[in-house]
Automatic annotation (TrEMBL):
InterPro entries: ACP-like_sf, PP-bd_ACP. It comes from Ruminiclostridium papyrosolvens C7. It comes from the Bacteria. Residues 1-77 form the Carrier domain. Coiled coil: none annotated. This is Phosphopantetheine-binding protein.
């Protein structure tokens, strides 16, 4: 799980250079996310982790923080995600 967090944090830091994100910081509440960035994030996750983000996966709670994203990716990789 830590490896997932590191990769996600590295990706997010490219966009949020002036803010050091903690695992549970809400990137939506902080105002960092717009629709274009949301699509970039989904594409990054699909490519980086070899998974498919389905329509039913597009719940804001799956993408709200580094921890939430890592939990989502981990559950998709393990086949445990129930969207």
């Amino acid at each position: 799980m830590e490896e997932i967090k590191i990769k996600v944090r590295t990706f997010l830091n490219r966009f949020f250079r002036k803010h050091e994100l903690d695992d549970n910081d809400d990137i939506f509440a902080l105002g960092f996310v717009n629709s274009l960035f949301a699509m970039q994030l989904v594409m990054f996750l699909e490519k980086e982790f070899g998974l498919r983000v389905e329509n039913e996966d597009l719940d804001i709670n799956n993408f709200r923080s580094i921890q939430a994203i890592a939990d989502f990716v981990s559950s998709k990789q393990n086949g445990c995600y129930k969207g």
